[in-house]
Amino acid sequence: MPNFLTMSYTERAAHHTNQTAKDLLTLMDRKKTNLSIAADVVSKDALLKLADTFGPYICVFKTHIDIITDFDEDLITQLKALSEKHDFLIFEDRKFADIGKKQNPPSQTSSLPSNIPPTPFPQTGNTVVHQYASGIYKIASWSHITNAHPIPGEGIIKGLASVGLNLFSPTTASPLSRGLLLLAEMSSAGALTTGTYPSQAYTMACKNRDFVFGFIGQRRLSSEGTEEGDEPDFVYLTPGVQMASKGDDLGQQYRTPEEVVLESGCDVIIVGRGLYGAKDSKKAAEEYRRAGWNAYLKRIGMEVEA
Ligand code: 6AU
After folding, report:
1. CB of 278 closer than 6 angstroms to any ligand 1 atom
2. Is the CB of 147 under 6 A from ligand 1?
3. pLDDT digits (tens, 9 = 90+) for 227-250
4. What is the pLDDT of residue 217?
5. What DSSP assignment string belongs to the chain?
6. What is the average pLDDT across 298-304?
7. What is the pLDDT of residues 33-58, one digit of tens each?
8. Which molecular function term from Gene Ontology is one that the record holds (predicted)?
């Protein structure tokens, strides 16, 4: 059985069956970064400025699009252009968590973004289908990655996959690779993601590997409790990372890049206030990038960057 912990991201990409995982793992080695910024700002200008400033240092730009007070379609056009310019993936941290609910499929004309051709949505829809494809934000049309809580059961994955796996490029007609992360564990004090919760999330992910390519979590999970004999590879994106602080007054808990990547076997460090709160953005970006990258290099037995 391969040991994913000591394999390079590129080697893991070659083995991976999920296109989003392949894209992300390849990008990380190409750009020498496993840093993601949590861009928790509330205006269009501030969000685009963060994407342009931190773009050269990151593999993933994480958004909370519903906190933007002056959201418009031009924001998405510009964000997509910056993702191409700086070579990063976009991750809308939507934390879907709705129950499955039978209803009509989204209207093929009104709910889809204008640049996405109609796709065969299932006749029995799910609330999250609409939340992902429709509304003001049309998340599926621009976000490479999104995430969901496993709490409602497997139906949430099926609903989101019915959108994410059925989107095609209007220009090339090739599939737009979209991928889902399950929240297996949370970083905040008192989170209820304890006991068998992470391993149940793991089992759900194993059954849906065409769409689920990894987790938001605090440590690499094992296959204990899964119904499969083999050990699938998942990509772990980990929030609650800061080097100067141990937490905030609302229960956030921070660990260092080394604790997250080297000791807990996670892959991507997600840093919010540690980056956009720094006085010198570029210096902080390079410090976090180097800390995350060196932890990965140590893990795979390579010489670290000076
Ligand atoms: O570094 P911070 O504390 O400024 O920001 C952390 C970011 C925020 C949270 O919404 C998010 O990470 N987050 C998540 C995610 C990514 O899903 C899960 C979690 O358990 N804790 C957490 O902080 O944008």
Report:
1. no
2. yes
3. 445 689 999 999 999 999 999 999
4. 97
5. ---GGGS-HHHHHHH---HHHHHHHHHHHHHT--EEEE---SSHHHHHHHHHHHGGG-SEEEE-GGG-TT--HHHHHHHHHHHHHHT-EEEEEEEE-PPP---PPPPTTTSS-TTS------SS--HHHHHHHSTTT-GGGT-SEEEE-STT-THHHHHHHHHHTT-B-TTT-PBPP-EEEEE---SSTT-S--TTHHHHHHHHHHHTTTTEEEEE-SS---STT-S-SS----EEEE--B-SS-SB-TTS-B-B-HHIIIIIS---EEEESHHHHTSSSHHHHHHHHHHHHHHHHHHHTT-PPP-
6. 96
7. 999 999 999 999 999 999 999 999 99
8. orotate phosphoribosyltransferase activity
Locate the domains of the chain by residue range.
4-299
- Residues catalogued as catalytic: 93, 95, 98
Contacts 24+ apart (CB under 8 A), 274-281: 274/241, 274/242, 274/243, 274/244, 274/245, 275/37, 275/38, 275/54, 276/37, 276/39, 276/40, 276/41, 276/50, 276/54, 281/53, 281/54
Residue nearest to atom 24 of ligand 1 (CA): 38
CA of 58 to the centre of ligand 1 (A): 16
pLDDT, residue 226, reads: 46
Topology (CATH level 3) of domain 4-299 = TIM Barrel (3.20.20)
Kindly compute the dihedral angle of the four CA atoms of residues 71, 151, 271, 135, in this order, to the nearest 10 degrees: -10
Q: What is the pTM of this model?
A: 0.92
What are the pLDDT digits (tens) for 143-175?
999 999 999 999 999 999 999 999 998 889 899
Q: pLDDT above 70 covers what percent of the chain?
A: 88
Q: Give the mean model confidence (pLDDT) for residues 219-234.
A: 72
Give the pLDDT band (50/70/90) at residue 64: very high
